[in-house]
């Protein structure tokens, strides 16, 4: 063992820096992300032509976080921003596969923003994405950002859902 110890620094130098993890670099800290999302939902806002009232706070759901991470990794690998997975699976199918039984689900995707604040700004500028952020029916969320070498470099996935079996609350009677 003594002979190997002097070689360890040399081996580390020769091997060079470790490659960046494919999902590292942009994932926001969980509590900070929840605080930002819930502060956003705590204020009424206009999404397109509709004013949405303040919405209840979202809860982090680890199953949704993992599902969002897996989809973000796929988006990064494929260098695409789309809701349908490579094998044709929908958000509903991905959540079912992850073990989350939903009554209602929505998904916001973004490619390129460096921070959660930038991704949220993009989503708030889109009526449909803004509505997802403000829909009081959603109770749980999962969020992931991964980096990749492609055009977008950062791939954001926000999954919002209401679990099956819970009472439905409608924030917008048109939905």
TrEMBL record:
<dbReference type="InterPro" id="IPR014044">
    <property type="entry name" value="CAP_dom"/>
</dbReference>
<dbReference type="Pfam" id="PF00188">
    <property type="entry name" value="CAP"/>
</dbReference>
<keyword id="KW-0732">Signal</keyword>
<dbReference type="InterPro" id="IPR035940">
    <property type="entry name" value="CAP_sf"/>
</dbReference>
<feature type="signal peptide">
    <location>
        <begin position="1"/>
        <end position="20"/>
    </location>
</feature>
<feature type="domain" description="SCP">
    <location>
        <begin position="55"/>
        <end position="159"/>
    </location>
</feature>
<protein>
    <submittedName>
        <fullName>CAP domain-containing protein</fullName>
    </submittedName>
</protein>
